[in-house]
Amino acid sequence: MHTVICAKQTPSTTAILAVEEGKVTWSDPGGSPDIANPWDEYAIEEAIRLREKHGGKVTAISMGPEEAREALKTAIAMGCDEAVLISDEAIKGSDTLATSYVLAKAIEKLGDVDLVIFGRQAIDGDTGQTSMQVARRLGWTPFSLVSSVDELDPEGRTVSVTRAIESGRQKVKGALPAALSVLKEINEPRYPSFKGIRKATKYMRRELRTWGAADLEADVDRIGEAGSGVSWPEIYMLPPREGECTIIEADTPEAAASALVDKLFEEKVI
Ligand SMILES: Cc1cc2nc3c(=O)[nH]c(=O)nc-3n(C[C@H](O)[C@H](O)[C@H](O)COP(=O)(O)OP(=O)(O)OC[C@H]3O[C@@H](n4cnc5c(N)ncnc54)[C@H](O)[C@@H]3O)c2cc1C
């Protein structure tokens, strides 16, 4: 079994965003502004658990600038076997259409891939589109909103999953190769061990492969701005929300609660 996980680098959840010359920038006083997209940790964990059960290997891929190495470092530290960074000036300005084209090309180049696993969405772009676009491009069986992988049969070339949909749970079975986008409830991602973090640091220095558009034999008209169906004519920060805070003082919690309810009535909140 060869499973690929797609991990996106995103600003950390505590990063301070800004817009400079029409570009989004971010910094993090806490130190690490770039992280692996939190939703992708569930994809990494599921791939490792399937390897523990069925053998084979797990390759992590990420498309992005140099900072995307952070996402791959997390993947190796958690237990992925290999990683590939896809980075090239030519892919800058790619929307999800162009991103999915690049990721599909990378999966084809890896070859012999049985399963690709994605997070539900990225915490920055938040479209949730890329996974199913990649499945469509590869012509693979698409499974979105996966809350559990119930059965995987590498020999019989099938996979059965449960999807969490609005009206309940849906049990679905389909042929390999397949693409899954997974939900938070699928597992509890492990914390990288100290040994895993050390292995990742070495791996990133010595073994990480970096591919550009030429390595993927990508059509330049299908990547970057040229390959994007969406453009960002204007990017701006929303004005900071204004608001005031009233502290309700009272002798007892009950009196404070009653004063709060009166205030909420007064303000027509309730
Ligand atoms: C006009 C335009 C210009 C843009 N320019 C840039 C740019 O210059 N640089 C830039 O970083 N972004 C850029 N973006 C944003 C970029 O297109 C999206 O972040 C990217 O396509 C993924 O979409 P998303 O963030 O909505 O992820 P979703 O579709 O919500 O992600 C779903 C899942 O797909 C996988 N995935 C998504 N993106 C990647 C990735 N890059 N690598 C590996 N796995 C991935 C992850 O598993 C993720 O959980 C641009 C977008 C537009 C519209």
Write the layout of secondary structure elements.
Layout: E1 2-6, E2 9-11, E3 16-20, E4 23-27, E5 34-36, H1 40-54, E6 57-63, H2 69-78, E7 82-86, H3 96-110, E8 115-119, H4 130-138, E9 141-153, E10 158-165, E11 168-175, E12 178-182, H5 194-206, E13 209-211, H6 253-266
Parallel strand pairs: 1-6, 1-8, 6-7, 7-13, 8-12, 9-12
Antiparallel strand pairs: 2-5, 3-4, 9-10, 10-11
This protein binds flavin-adenine dinucleotide.
Residues 6-8, 37, 39-40, 43, 62-64, 92-96, 99, 103, 118-119, 121-122, 124-131, 228, 230-232 line the site of flavin-adenine dinucleotide.
Mind explaining what this structure looks like?
Helix content is 28%, strand content 28%. β10 and β11 form a beta hairpin. With 270 residues, the protein is an alpha/beta fold. The strands form three sheets. It has a nine-stranded mixed beta sheet, sandwiched between helices. The chain has a two-stranded antiparallel sheet with strand order 2-5. It has a single domain (2-222), classed as Rossmann fold (3-Layer(aba) Sandwich), CATH 3.40.50.620. The longest helix has 15 residues, at 40-54. It is built from six helices and 13 strands. Bound molecules: flavin-adenine dinucleotide (FAD). Flavin-adenine dinucleotide is lined by residues 6-8, 37, 39-40, 43, 62-64, 92-96, 99, 103, 118-119, 121-122, 124-131, 228, 230-232.
